Amino acid sequence: MLGFLKEPVVVTAKINVNLVALTVMGLISRLWGLCYPRAVVFDEVYYGQFVSLYMKRIFFVDDSGPPFGHMLLALGGYLGGFDGNFLWNRIGTEYSMNVPVWSLRLLPALAGALCVPLAYQILVELHFSHCAALGAALLILLENSLITQSRFMLLESILIFFILLAVLSYLKFHNLQKHSAFSGSWWFWLLLTGVACSCAVGVKYMGLFTYMLLLAIAGLHFWHMIGDQNLSNVSLLCHFLARGLALIIVPMGMYISFFYVHLALLYRSGPHDQIMTSAFQASLEGGLARITQGQPLEVAYGSQITLRNVLGKPMQCWLHSHTNTYPIRYENGRGSSHQQQVTCYPFKDVNNWWIVKDPGMQQLVVSNPPRPVRHGHIVQLVHGITTRYLNTHDVAAPLSPHSQEVSCYIDYNISMPAQNLWRVEIVNRESDTDVWKTILSEVRFVHVNTSAVLKASGLSGASLPEWGYRQLEVVGEKLSKGYHQSMVWNVEEHRYGKSQEQKEREVELHSPTQMDISKNLSFMAKFTELQWKILTLKNEDTEHKYSSSALDWITMDTNIAYWLHPTSGAQIHLLGNVATWASANAAALVYLCLSLWYLLRRRRKIYDIPEDAWQLWVSAGGICGGGWAVNYLPFFLMEKTLFLYHYLPALTFQILLIPVVLQHLGDHLCRSVLLKSMFSALIVAWFSSVYFVYCTFSPVSYGQPALSLTELKALRWKDTWNILIRKQ
Fold first, then answer.
1. Is the pLDDT at 466 greater than 80, yes or no?
2. CB neighbours of residue 415 within 10 Å
3. Dist CA 331 CA 340 (whole Å)
4. Which of 183, 268, 371, 628 is geometrically suited to a Cys-Cys bond with 653, CB 3.0 to 4.6 A?
């Protein structure tokens, strides 16, 4: 029974020495001297703020993209024991001792290092020679721009890693299709494709470009499968469902899970709360939650409320009034109603409180039991401190003459009667009998007499003059089609009024509420709101010293100075390997010209290369050339500040195209032994130039050693490069 123990247990493993050597070299090139410089480098000043907020569990919104990349950077900080206490306010600031610099930069560096063996494997899976694959990996290894971008707390190396992992996984899956469909390895690589795609999109939305490319390629491959008569309808259906599950359902689920973890980690109120809705703010610990905890849920007649405009940008503001009146005449000579001013005020104030009154009754308190206000009900809004009614009439607003002035009515005993009835319309209602709810309901107030809608017009225009204390204008918008957010309000603070006397009511307006009703949002509601904010929130794009256009990237007419030593000439620049960039452009041009030539010849039934070589040429072009195109061309349509590092994903695909073209030229155009020998010698000479350029620019890729004034001037190969030279 135990006879097998008489023989030794032998485990045999195949080790690809090329792959191991490339991985080691990649790790050395990216991890060497990772803590240098021990100072904030370029966009570390931006991403570091988010890492600190993660460490402190404080909520934030970054309009640049999804949270997965930020969470990976924060993971590095967590593993290094970072407490989040560092002021990220200036490039070049020395890191304090509590900042684990090596740990924070580790994950981007590892991702950059692993791109080297990934490039090798992609060429192998495309059925190119190991020599070509080795060349591709070495070009990635010696690319100065990729080295620089990998060695700091930045996201591009992580993005490129997941992009290449997705491409490699799909190629491995596709190569298993003929002989091992639905096997364990087939499922592994298919699912890993979807996972890597979702991770790429989760790091930056630029990952969508490669994801769409792989979906298109998968769709094309499946289209070819449909024409295979050896596959039954059931088999085709199973293939379709498997791809739908792995390439669409799994990535969507993972993408949503990134936000779930993000929101679970960031449960505390922070400086970015104000752009979110009141309901979202109330779900966070501290901040608005401390104010709104225990408020009544249903708004009733007699409720005391504050009304926050839903738009919330460029600033949050609340419906407000005070004792001052509109001037009899404005600066342009137009007359006003001289009624009490109504504004939108960007700060919490006792004058933001209003009382919801039943027009048919005089009482300003909540009855027992409370009578809730529903969608379509008519109400009057009474200003809590001055007890005047919210009113609008056919008088032009001070800053928006096409709209009606909104005021609190003062009876001057003239021929201008009060018009203070408003219909409550719940925009996000589920039925026409919905109850108006605190925080959750988004409502419009439609004026009964004129059908004008209460609107915070000042959020999109100028503030009122000095007589209006520079507060924001509120108007009655006559053109009320649609539901623009500036016309939508929600109840933020709420209490049930109990005091009929004005003096007692003023005291009541300053006192906390006692009732305890939870208003926590579901995760999907928070996810939807946060996703919408990320997609629609736009910071004002300003011209940056190192910004560039997409045309500048191909010829590398620009660079970015990342860091400068305060005393020596040591500095770090985002600069590419000139030899590699020029070769990549030449390879793309050669591929395009040869492809057009082959297509024209094939149209005439002239086949210059065998069919399997043509299929190899097309598939490699679809991955490498297509990857370059989808990651580069969309930037011509983007209205945002662009930098050279935006080109790095496209550049990576273009670099992979170089050995593809070189092997094709060597195999099919160099037909004699002499030509092949000359071509090999040229490749060796060319690769030596790539290595020479790498060595020349490595001091400004790694920041060391420090260069002299003469050496720095010698690095300015182009007049457009901004090499920093200190004045003597």
1. yes
2. 5
3. 18
4. 628
- Residue 259: burial class (beta carbons within 10 Å; 0-12, 13-18, 19+): buried
The alpha carbon of 70 is separated from its chain's Cα centroid by a whole number of angstroms, namely 10
Write the DSSP assignment of 533-589 as a string of letters. HHHH--PPP---TT---HHHHHTT---EEEEE-SSSS-EEEE---HHHHHHHHHHHH
Q: How confident is the model at residue 691 (pLDDT cuts 50, 70, 90)?
A: very high
What phi and psi, each to the nearest 5 degrees, are found at residue 309? -70, 135
Q: How confident is the model at residue 480 (pLDDT cuts 50, 70, 90)?
A: low
Report helix angle 648-668 to 611-620, nearest 10.
Answer: 160
Instruction: Name residue 524's beta-bridge partners.
Output: none
Q: What is the set of domains in the chain, with CATH numbers?
A: 17-261+546-715 (no CATH), 295-513 (2.80.10.50)
How far is residue 153 from each of residues 34, 58, 71, 199, measured CA to CA in Å? 11, 20, 12, 18
Cα distance between residue 89 and residue 602, in whole Å: 60
Distance, in Å, from the CA atom of 574 to the CA atom of 330, rounded to the nearest integer, reads 56
Token duo for residue 32: 């060497």
Q: Which of 194, 216, 208 is nearest to 159 (CA)?
A: 208
* Side chain identity, residue 539: N
pLDDT-above-90 percentage for the chain: 60
Pick from 624, 594, 636: which is nearest to 213 by CA?
624
pTM for the model = 0.82
Contact by Cβ (8 Å): 624, 656: yes
pLDDT of residue 546: 84
